[in-house]
User: What shape does this take?
Amino acid sequence: MKEFFQRKNIVISAKRYGIDALGAMAQGLFCSLLIGTILNTIGSQFHVGFLTAQIITINKIGYTVGGLCSFMSGSAMAVAIGYALQAPPMVLFSLVTVGYACNALGGAGGPLAVLFVAIIAAEFGKAVSKETKVDILVTPVVTILIGVGAAWVIAPPIGKVASAFGVLIMQATVLQPFLMGILVSVLVGVALTLPISSAAICSVLGLTGLAGGAAVAGCCAQMVGFACMSFRENRWGGLVSQGIGTSMLQMPNIVKNPRIWIPPTLASAVTGPIATCLFRLEMNGAAINSGMGTCGLCGQLGVWTGWLSPSEAALANGAAAIVPGAMDWIGLILISFVLPAILSVIFCEILRKMGWIKEGDLTLPQ
Assistant: This one.
């Protein structure tokens, strides 16, 4: 069996699955769901016709360019994982179907479900690849059937767990603002960095108002925090990819050294209650933006949109259009950029001096 696994390049290890596959999955998610949300936001806010036009209709539902990106997020993640596992072409191409099915069955927990199911399907596909004379039939059939079967069994429970996590966030919103600010900020921020969709959770929950503002604060703390505290390792490329892209890129490093997650999480625990209690920051745009942080500046655009024209969900919860004043803008800038950068760097330097974070611990995988 050991010789067979070696011949098939099946390496069962924490590095292969927890670092290589996870890092690739984050890139797949960025190139689909997150890019799609960014394009939709740019199109709607700046009235770019090409980005707001429905270019294709599937099952009577119209999709924009950004909508198509998000629609294919499961497939993008699965293929990225297969690529990291060095799957042969027939297996890699078959993962398109597996990823789409798994993401659809997993709901808010779709990305996390795709991680497990794509690994299972890819390894089984690699095991049978080029073992028969009818490989062109056997390999895709085995990969797809194993993958879709695993998705049918695994994805819904993972989706329920993700939904339960969302319920926890919703329960936190009914607490008094100080505790709510801490809990929502920390939990949604953690969800943003984990391989689950914080944007989807916020969207499903309709997270707007003060809770949405706390969620924005937590997501910004993770993204801006990781971007700034890892600047010495990743320089400008890392600053942009994490600060405007996603902090999920750090998940492989978190697996290796979980202590690197402490600084941005502490920062979110500080900025959350500041957002809810001091600045009364509300996110009354589209609920999905509550879970986007600084990704394409979608969180900030959502707050701005909510000031001028609240979403239907926000209006249903009593929101009203306002003319933002100086304190509103100061609060948004401090919560989104300034405080996360300063606090995360300070906390990180403390941990570096303690020896908990060492040089290279924050270097992004290439």
Remarks:
- The longest strand covers residues 56-58.
- The first helix runs from residue 2 to 7.
- Residues 2-156 form one domain.
